[in-house]
Design goal:
The complex is a heterodimer of chains A (about 700) and B (about 550). Chain A has about 700 residues and is α+β, with helices and mostly antiparallel strands. Chain A has 16 helices and 35 strands. In chain A, the strands form 9 sheets. In chain A, strands 13, 14, 15, 20, 23, 24, 31, 34 and 35 form a 9-stranded mixed β-sheet that branches. Chain A starts with a strand and ends with a strand. Chain B has 2 domains: about 220 residues, no CATH class; about 200 residues, no CATH class. Classes of the chains: A alpha+beta (about 700), B alpha+beta (about 550).
């Protein structure tokens, strides 16, 4: 009987499996070493091990895979050999790499010059031209195009990106080029900018299309391989998906045709999980905070929905697709603390990594890290780190902090260790402000959802500093990110640019445009096996005040077809959003519509975690011992109880100061704070703020 | 001065850099004109109550010296008792305001905490037009600063949170694009307000005394760091020089820029006395811009992560002869400052490379900005199409130069305006955006190539350019050749072909005219015959060099 829902997150060192039993909603986990050369080997190894636990492949009802295969391949300069077709006369769109150097990068005069997205010898210019209204000024020269394509194929390209000027207004020429390429070589992968990202601004559109072109053949091969391995192993279900950077999933088939949404998807599952768990616990507004070994990922969730951006970067290249607005900063357990030449106390951005790792790992590391500080301060248990898998050596942590920080700055050991935490926290605080206050949100209106191995160690203090009243620590912080793979919907994004002043736009044209997009979305979903009544459609438009250059995405107030007053209502919503984000709005200024957007979503059946009734407040039976820890201030080391997480039950109250230990993480509750377990066994810490 | 513990200090410093970054992102996102929103020509800073720079988020080195200069002029015209909470000042005067040129406008807001003025937030952003003889206000033919648009010394734009409508009215009637100018200034004020609220919170959290102490500590530590580094260099002197094509008015005479740098102990002195006298044409630059080049070169030579604040300026001394091209007197025009700035930055960087014993870098091709002022024959509405255009950068050991954007180009974050935005918003059509073969200075490592953009006019327009690099080439080093020169050509290849010099003020364009903007290339490094053969072949195949150049300059035999 189909009962297992499995998520597999392939990371650099380990592939994490999360297994949910659909019958009783019990979670199980499994780790296998990653196999970077062929990541599917680790996945298959996992299935073998699951079988030993009595989990049969044919009983799997749902499978979702999160992978960094694509992002890594691009960053390592791998990917399919790719050619590029541009409008005649405009090759410099590729030759000139727009870098946007900010901050310290401006002074790096010895940095190497950036390389174009496609080597110029693999670029051809095509005789054709469309104007900004979509009129054809110069017909496509079919014969010249055919020769150009043949030349690229002769040079061995396996994939061709096509980005013609204003193709988002009139895709005819790009589509004709696809036919030409198909005729010359039916096996060559084709990426048309009018389909990948039909948005104004040629340079990011080109770059995104090239990223897709390099990635798609690679992902197609990988997924074909993985798909057949899964079938061989006995997996029968058709619910087999891959995670995307928009926080939704796609079928293997959809990704094999358009793989760009899988780049930068690494942190997305964690955001989905954090948002879902917070929502379930009664907190629709949350900030997800996933802190691991080298970095931390933060995202803001409003009314259950993570904020999104329409552009990211892979290496120097723009990727202009909708993605969750995740702010990643270099702050993790392995982040190194140091004193710079000006005598300033710094933490990061470099990390001691997994090898040698923090000084306390005893693997030869001598640099003091955040984990070393947490150990010296008493927050971590040297005998119970990652359930005792990695023994920690306190003396080595102390020595590193003393030599590298305390002595040069003339601080005592505790203050130096506490300083490391305060400084790494302030760096994360800036990161949280970047996604909250910089977007017009007040962090005090949000709950902080802390996970990843290190998140719950830092969260309570960080929240207090930001004025955040509550912290939520999910039951398995170390696995929360992988759990997100079981909580996502199937999702595809559609966008079409159409620059025009809103007041002069005919509503019929708007409705027509949305109807076309809807048709396309339903057709795509149908091809993947979803019927129209399963698909949820969300419509929005990108708007700006006339003269502005950057747009806000504004949800429509109702489902199209729209009447005139609906358009007016959407405009009012835009004013409101602009006022909140930028502190000023201009209700009397004309507004331009730049792009139409449509999100098509197929909600999957998700595990509903059953709550348990809250029991008694007294948690003393979960106390496994006591130790001293430093919570700041003049009090020095303070004795506090240490609780065992799996012995805590709903309703239990844990007054601070306290430490809660579990296999995959440690939660710190500060003096004056109180933690209570909710019905889903989340730890809810009240920070005393707000 | 109160001692501050190292942790609190770093926490405050990190918070300050977060605030400046937040101001900057707010400014870019709310910009109306393409200059701010597409080219990112703007910057933000926090300064202390004496006007000393606390922190700046740097995307443009041009603005490194500007904010303290703006504050200096504000504080020399207003006493502390005249500042009130909610006030906001604007300034754009190059001589009485610290602005690089009239279209760069400061919006400065005093920050009060507990009834006391504790700091200033400042934003500087390029405006699309502030009047003057040509659209965009920057005429290559200007001979007085009065030709360059409306000039404002520090004036109160908003009083206790309320905009002074008199000031706004003056701005409105003095600009060809009043909506953009007012929109951008209000956006800048919003940005200052964001900074104001955040700085206030910081003072609230740590107390005035502690935050002020952190400012002092920051200056002191930065200064000590710079002095320590300088002390480790051998004492010595270095010289570097460069030329501009001409001043835009006197066309047969190059403009000479010269820097003599002396490093003694832990100080640096930059003496520009041998530079030319101030020019009739608009290539003069005021002292804050020269200082900015010095700060840039010092940070680049010492550590790109060095914080940028008042402390950095203390070990540096500038000798700028009054009445010279680097310290002109009113009313010398200044709007074509960018090319001069670029050259001064190159030569000052050269002197520090010599003094510190670092790797030399070939020169970058002259660049600047083009402006077309359009007036629609249908609606009568005016548009200003402003674009930054950059030359190819210089090569160095191990790396070819880049094409316009990239490292060794101090403008950092500036981007080319997208073709699709230009055509959708302005009455012109582009026919070309390409690279220019053989314009990269030959060498073992090749200079960056110049680019070319070509426009067809659909309406009448007035073209101005504040460029350089048509006569003076970007020189190569250690056997490397010079980059190719740039050109501005109207109706190229026709009987009506007209070549314009690099500084143009309001050249009339008719519908149907073709404008071709060719940018210069960067200098090469080392003997081109020693260039790796794969690189030569790659350049040939990429169309970066011609077969003749491959054969004759690079000695390619196969």
């Amino acid at each position: 009987m189909k009962r297992w829902r499995i998520g597999v997150d392939t990371g650099g060192t380990f592939s994490d499996f999360v297994i949910l039993d659909a019958r009783d909603h019990k979670l199980d986990v499994l780790k296998t070493p990653s196999t970077p050369r062929d990541p599917s080997i680790a996945v298959m190894e996992g299935f073998r091990r699951l079988q030993q636990r009595g989990i049969q492949a044919q009983d799997v009802e749902f499978f979702c895979h999160g992978t960094t295969v694509g992002t890594n391949a691009l960053l390592e300069g791998k990917g399919a050999p790719c050619g590029l077709l541009l409008t005649d006369g405009f090759r410099a769109i590729n030759d000139v790499v727009e870098e946007e150097r900010f901050g310290p990068d401006v002074y790096k005069i010895y940095d190497p010059s950036p390389h174009p997205a496609v080597p110029p010898r693999l670029v051809r210019e095509i005789k054709e031209r469309v104007d900004f209204q979509g009129n054809i000024l110069t017909d496509l020269d079919m014969e010249q195009a055919r020769r150009a394509v043949a030349e690229l194929l002769a040079k061995g390209v396996k994939s061709i990106a096509v980005c013609l000027l204003f193709s988002f207004m009139n895709p005819k020429h790009e589509q004709a080029l696809r036919e030409i390429i198909r005729k010359e070589d039916p096996d060559c992968s084709v990426s048309l900018s009018c389909e990948i990202i039909p948005r104004i601004r040629e340079q990011p559109r080109m770059s995104t299309t090239v990223v897709n072109a390099r990635l798609t053949p690679l992902m197609a091969t990988y997924l074909q391989h993985l798909g057949s391995s899964l079938r061989e192993a006995g997996v029968e279900t058709h619910q087999v998906f891959i995670m995307q950077c928009n926080g939704g999933m796609a079928t293997f088939q959809a990704t094999s045709e358009r793989a760009v949404p899988t780049v930068l998807s690494g942190p997305a599952a964690g955001v989905v999980a954090g948002a879902t768990l917070a929502m379930q616990a009664g907190f629709p507004n949350s900030i997800t905070f996933d802190m691991g070994g080298t970095s931390c990922d933060m995202a803001l969730v409003e009314q259950g929905r993570a904020l999104e951006v329409t552009k990211g970067k892979v290496g120097p290249w723009d990727v202009a697709i909708p993605m969750l607005d995740v702010n990643t900063i270099s702050a993790g357990g392995g982040t190194v603390s140091w004193v710079d030449k000006a005598g300033i106390f710094r933490v990061g951005p470099h990390s001691a990594g997994a090898d040698p790792g923090p000084a306390c790992y005893g693997k030869g590391g001598t640099e003091p890290t955040v984990t070393d500080a947490n150990l010296v301060l008493g927050f971590l248990n040297p005998e119970y780190f990652l359930a005792g898998e990695i023994p920690l050596y306190k003396e080595q942590a102390e020595q590193a902090i003393r030599e590298k920080i305390a002595q040069p700055l003339n601080l005592d050991l505790l203050r130096a260790a506490d300083g490391i935490i305060r400084i790494v926290n302030v760096n994360m605080e800036q990161g949280m402000k970047a996604i909250s206050t910089e977007r017009g949100f007040d962090p005090r209106d949000f709950v902080l959802v802390a996970f990843g191995g290190a998140g719950p160690v830092h969260a309570a203090r960080l929240a207090a500093d930001l004025g955040i009243p509550k912290v939520l620590v999910p039951p398995s912080p170390g696995l929360t990110s992988a759990l997100g793979l079981l909580l996502s919907d199937v999702r595809h994004d559609y966008v079409r640019s159409r620059l025009g002043v809103l007041s002069t736009l005919d509503e019929n044209e708007i409705n027509q445009r949305f109807a076309e997009m809807r048709e396309r979305a339903l057709a795509d979903m149908k091809a993947e096996g979803f019927s129209a009544d399963e698909v949820v459609l969300e419509y929005s438009v990108d708007m700006r005040y006339s003269g502005q250059g950057y747009e806000l995405t504004v949800p429509l107030t109702r489902t199209p077809p729209l009447a005139r007053e609906d358009i007016q209502a959407t405009r009012s919503r835009f004013d409101e959003q602009h006022g909140r984000l930028f502190g000023h709005k201009a209700e009397t200024e004309p507004v331009e519509l730049v792009s139409f957007r449509l999100v098509a979503r197929v909600p999957t059946q998700k595990p509903a975690f059953a709550g348990q009734p809250k029991g008694k407040a007294d948690a003393s039976s979960a106390v496994k011992g006591h130790r001293t820890a430093y919570f700041g201030g003049a009090a020095g080391m303070v004795e506090c109880p240490v609780y065992q997480r799996d012995k805590l039950a709903p309703g239990n109250v844990v007054p601070g100061p306290a430490i809660v230990e579990q296999m995959d993480s440690t939660t710190v509750v500060y003096p004056g704070q109180t933690a209570q377990l909710d019905t889903y066994t989340n730890i809810i810490i009240s920070t005393g703020e707000g | 001065m109160q001692r501050i513990d190292p942790v609190t200090f770093q926490v405050i410093v990190s918070s300050l850099s977060g605030i400046v970054r937040e101001m900057q992102s707010s400014l870019f996102r709310t910009g109306y004109s393409t200059i701010i929103r597409e080219s990112l020509d703007a910057s933000c800073a926090i300064l202390d109550r004496q006007g000393r720079l606390v922190g700046q988020y740097v995307n443009l080195t041009i603005h490194l010296g500007a904010h303290p200069a703006g504050l200096h002029h504000l504080l020399s015209r207003y006493t502390y008792s005249e500042f009130e909470e909610g006030d906001c000042f604007i300034v754009n005067h190059p001589y009485y305001g610290g602005s690089p040129h009239s279209v760069d406008m400061f919006v400065i807001t005093p920050v009060f905490y507990d009834g006391e003025l504790v700091a200033f937030c400042s934003g500087l952003a390029h405006k699309s037009d502030i009047g003057g003889t040509v659209p965009g206000s920057g005429s290559g033919s200007a001979t007085e600063v009065f030709h360059e648009g409306l000039l404002l010394p520090p004036v109160k734009y908003a009083s206790r949170g309320k905009i002074n409508k008199e000031i706004e009215a003056i701005l409105e009637v003095n600009s060809r694009t009043p909506e953009l100018v007012i929109g951008d200034i209000r956006g800048q004020m919003g940005t200052d307000r964001v900074g104001e609220a955040r700085v206030k919170t910081l003072f609230q959290k740590y107390g005035t005394e502690t935050v002020m102490a952190a400012f002092e500590e920051l200056y002191a530590r930065t200064e000590v760091r710079v002095r320590q580094e300088l002390a480790a260099w051998p004492d010595g002197e270095a010289e570097a020089e460069g030329y501009l094509d001409n001043d835009g008015i006197v066309l047969d005479r190059k403009v000479h820029l010269h820097c003599h740098a002396t490093k003694r102990g832990d100080t640096l002195t930059f003496d520009f006395s041998k530079s030319d006298d101030q020019t009739r044409g608009p290539v003069n630059i005021c002292p804050p811009l020269v200082q900015a080049t010095g700060y840039f070169a010092t940070i680049a030579a010492i550590d790109p992560y060095l914080p940028c604040n008042y402390g950095l300026s203390k070990p540096l001394r500038f000798i700028l002869r009054e009445g010279s091209v680097v310290n002109p007197l009113v009313p010398a025009p200044v709007n074509c400052y960018a090319a001069t700035f670029g050259m001064v930055e190159s030569i000052i960087t050269d002197t520090l490379i010599q003094l510190s014993g670092k790797q030399p870098i070939a020169r970058t091709g002259g660049g600047g900005a083009t402006v077309i002022g359009w007036k629609s024959t249908k609606t009568g509405r005016s548009f200003v199409q402003y674009e930054m255009c950059l030359g190819g950068t210089g090569a160095m050991d191990g790396d070819d130069g880049s094409k316009g954007m990239g490292p060794r180009n101090s403008v950092g974050a500036i981007r080319a305006t997208p073709i699709e935005i230009i055509e959708a918003e302005f009455p012109c059509r582009m026919t070309t955006y390409a690279i220019r073969p053989d314009t990269g200075g030959p060498g073992k490592y090749r200079g960056g190539l110049g680019t070319v953009r070509e426009y067809v006019c659909m309406e009448p327009g007035a073209f101005s350019c504040r460029g350089d690099g048509q006569i003076v080439t970007a020189s190569g080093i250690l056997g490397g050749g010079a980059g190719g020169v740039g050109a501005l050509i109207v109706n190229p290849g026709t009987p009506q072909e007209k070549r314009l010099q690099a500084r143009v003020g309001g050249y009339p364009l008719k519908p149907g005219d073709v404008l071709r903007v060719e940018m210069a290339g960067g200098g090469g490094y080392g003997n081109p015959k020693e260039r790796d053969r794969d690189r030569v072949l790659g350049d040939l195949e990429s169309g970066y060099i011609t077969p003749e150049a491959a054969r004759e300059i690079y000695g390619l035999t196969t």
